[in-house]
Amino acid sequence: MRTPAPAAPPSPRSVVARNKLMRTAERLYAEKGFANVSVRQISEAAGQRNNSAVQYHFNGRDELIKAILSSYTDVIEERRIAMVEALLGTERAVTREEHFACLILPGVEYHIEAAAPTWGARFFAQAIVEPALREYVIQEQLNTPSLRILNTHGAVRRKDFAPGLFQRYSAMVRQLSVHAFAELEYDLANGRIEQREAEARWRLLGQDLITSLCGLSSALLGEAGR
Amino acid sequence: MRTPAPAAPPSPRSVVARNKLMRTAERLYAEKGFANVSVRQISEAAGQRNNSAVQYHFNGRDELIKAILSSYTDVIEERRIAMVEALLGTERAVTREEHFACLILPGVEYHIEAAAPTWGARFFAQAIVEPALREYVIQEQLNTPSLRILNTHGAVRRKDFAPGLFQRYSAMVRQLSVHAFAELEYDLANGRIEQREAEARWRLLGQDLITSLCGLSSALLGEAGR
């Protein structure tokens, strides 16, 4: 049974509590996995006296997860849309490197500026393989204005592909970027990669992904001399 | 606290029970996600009268998951090693298409022959993003003989890459193949793609992945005219 969300604008205290719950849940889920964290543990770790705080503020686990996803998507989208607009506002033709840089670098810059540790990428990777959330996550990401603009006016366009192929290409781009970001975040969190190397490794990941996506798209479009 | 596994060879009845628990868990986890299935539910759905059957037969959830993973890896490995040996036993040079075909096609054939529905790919994708299992899954896959042989004697070799790059390349190959397989399995299970198209879609996925990995590897090796 769902408690309806409070209809009145949330009080400042409620905003603070929601935010604390979201940050705590993001961290716990990233570190322990969705299967190993209860909503009660999240409430407790967020210092909420009421054990049903997640229920009260979010109407349950799935809505809490969706709220965290949106906040992550929003932060990336803000950077990406600025980059896309700056790029497409120029007169000259856009290169594929620039196209994929718009996809990849906003995430790279977010992780570098956030300073260690971050949890968003691991959280996102888990949400996108969770059966009940997967469809939602994919749709929410596809519907961002920056992606819609890039796919229409960028250097790799929907219309360049044979029927059906764009969707399959687009899924591969998503799979690669989501999980590559998550794996670097895991390696930094677990000390497999040292924290002082973090910035260099995020930049390297960005460059690897841009290079790989140029090669991948070119091959799928039948261009590359293989 | 862990109960030690029975030291005597398992009875036929125990083998049957273990197998039933594994198949049931694989299906439930694939359909509902690790977070939404308890070991008690698995025991019940597998028709075990004892609610601690998972504990008794596997010493808990993580060992159950590892057993399922191994059975999936073994099935794929059996096909892949035969393909690798047949390919490398020829005199002529191996092409990159053939190299990546060895990586990808055993999974494609498995899904086609198993006949719908399958659960292994979704199960695998969830295990590889679960913080407590991730490292184990990655190591187990890297250690298969077929991959070690391909990376040493195939058409894209460890030694072709600049220091550090092979590992990053190899992670991308894994991310793309694991999650692309899982997504097609989801789409078939959810009816987004119709069952009568299954075989054609698995073959298309295989070809897309081989093409993409040729382009990706070539770009990372600095060869492609981008």
From TrEMBL, chains A, B:
Keyword annotations of the record: DNA-binding
Keyword DNA-binding: yes
Domain HTH tetR-type: 22-68
Pfam families, alphabetized: TetR_N
Name of the protein described by the UniProt record: TetR/AcrR family transcriptional regulator
SUPFAM superfamilies: Homeodomain-like
Species for this entry: Streptomyces ochraceiscleroticus
Tree of life domain: Bacteria
